[in-house]
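TL;DR need structure tokens for one chain.
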Amino acid sequence: MAEQVLRPHQVEAVDAILRSLQAPADGRLPADGLRAQCIAATGSGKTLVASAAARRLGAHRVLVLVPTLDLLVQTATAWRRDGGRTGAMVGVCSLRAEESEGVPCSTDPAELVEWLRDLDTVTVFATYASVGQGVLQRAHLAGLAAWDLMVVDEAHRTSGDGLKPWAAVHDQQLLPAARRLYMTATPRVWEAADGRRAPRLVASMSEDSPVFGPVAYRLSLSEAVSRGLVAPYQVVCVDIRGPEHGRRASLGTGVEEIRGARLAALQTGVLTAAAQENLRRLLTFHTRVAEAEAMAEGIGEVAARLWQRDPAVYPHPGRVWASWLYGEHPPVHRRAVLDAFASDVIEPRSDEGVAPEPVPAALRVLSSVKVLGEGVDTAYCDSVAFCDVRGSMVDIVQMVGRALRVRPGDGKLASLVVPVFLGRDEDPDDMLTSPAYGALTKVLEALRAHDAETIEALADSRPRSGPDRAAEPQPEGKEEGDDGGPVTVMSAPARELLKFSAPRDPAQLARFMRLRVIQPEGAYWRRGIEACARYAKETGTGQLRVPYDFVTPDDWSPAGFPLGTWLADQRRHHKAGRLDAGRVAELNAQGMVWSHHDVSFDEGLTAARSWAAEHGHFLPPATAVWNGYPVGTWAKNQRAAAKATGAGAAALTPARRKALEDVDPGWCPVWDVGWQRAFRLLQAHVRAGGGVPGAAGELVVQGEDLGRWVRAQRHALDQLLPAQRWLLVHAVGLDPAAADERPGRLSQDDKWALNLRAARRFHAREGHLNVPRKHTEVLEGEGLEGEGDGATEVKLGLWIANARRRAEKLTPRRRADLEEIGMRW
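>> reply
TL;DR here they are.
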């Protein structure tokens, strides 16, 4: 199938990616491969960009990583249908054949190696979960070849707090690839302060990181809106009053009664907003399955009540459709519900057995719980309602993205519906302190991850003058901002973007945007300076030599502040030239120690202690990160310093060497660190009562296949140093004379003959070769390598399927062998 014609911005993106990922003039790629980022607005077609880039790069072996099963199926379909990708496609996930749109899937490393062994052009789609479980890593250890291109979709999941589970994505030793392309719409995701918790970057893909590479292409949301690629949007705030909604009305009010009242108010508020804003397809997001189901089941009754109250405003309940989805629904059911959600008509139910005529749909409401996640196509949706924002910030960012996706020419306005639960007597303008605005704060922060330029402009602190200023209503009296300057008064366009059920004071709204949405970092900065002053007072040193893991005690103000990591961040920003001069001066006044050399070792040592306590050793891979600190790179640098010799070498001092030996005496071995890490993991396993593994895949610890490692040591024992041999024999009990009990490796001809014998036996018994894919044929008395008394299990179903897929590559003799016993191609 021919590939879809790219739109102009997609052509720009592909060209930029090719420039970043082109091989050097000498043809030699860096040891870690070439890397680049593509940051483009949600719904702008990053999937097609990746597929086109793979084709233009001539990449035969491509690995595409996605966060969810739904997105895996959708992406594979798009690469085949719209991207025109040829060759085999394979999934590394748990989907069954009927769920994967014809893509064969497996989580067995050996099976994957067998599938891909003879394929020239192949695209493998895998979930991040398969990386976390080590499936792909074990496949590479078993002989899977390196990738020509690795596409990391929704790549922000692999940064920030998300880096630890998916660190192997970036590791060239574990997942080798000539090129990596990281793609996302939201490279930076902030989570605001909540009580004592500091605002923090949940995800952050730095501009020119050695991990992610340079930004090859960027398309902001505001630019995508101006090009008509993404829907313009508005935030619709629905005021819901009543003390029972936000808190218990009395001691006699139970939790279930409160939830019921809250849900009824939500259903009324959502339907009212839909009628007022002319919404047609509305997604409502929840964190509890029961609430999503109840939301959908109760919509019809509430719609009928509202229609009876005012039929001129609200649609007839027969034209209102509602359903719900959650993560455990089968993919087939999800697709059916999503198809119904996208339809323009409603198929009424009939009790007489005669189906009535379909009616035009006025409103469709689909409630969901953790199912419509990253990248899943919901372009027919025109609005989302945030009925519960207790999920992670990354999930909320993705919810916002659902409403922004638009098909070219739709011309829709995306609406983000946010309930504001006000107490019965609460002043709506108490926006700076009221918990009622917590959901709105989170949604605006999530929207900022997509469109920082527009959201930050809503609280521009620059005073305005002239006609625009004069035309706006001004608060009475002279107002001053937190810094003594003129207060920000939100402009008319900003007030159009933020809609409330009842008018809000423009000055208060602007303060809310600035202090609770735009500048949580500013408030965080002030807390940091306050913690610095208290630290200086308590220690009396006059210098901010603060341990990396230091957190202010509960009796300090501020309490629980991570001062050590905060100061490390300021040093890093200062070194990169990103720290404002005014902030530099403030820190200098507190006795800041800027020299990275003076403090970096203490920071690294703290991270090293924590990493070793968690893993049982201090032999981290170079990509290891601990609480945001690059502990793997730091360890590598310390080993280099420990081994440095000669004049001018940056040698490790005896005191620092002693400190690291206290963490782990074997932190700096004479031999390879990878060998030492595997040995220590095996030693810990044996000391805990385990045996020495003898086969690949038998024991995998911290991503290390210790069974394969043990076999490699037996085969290469003569090449090891005497000390290494002594450790293997005396510290873990390895018997160097033990024979490898696994049978020898068969030739391709031997394998073919063995499988053909199994196929003939199956055909003789069943009369056909319609072998189920998972069928295993047991050849009794036909053991391998002349072992006539043994038995061999042959994965016949898989072999037949592979033979059909590679029919054109089989020799005439082999095709004839199969056709003789009834093979149908």
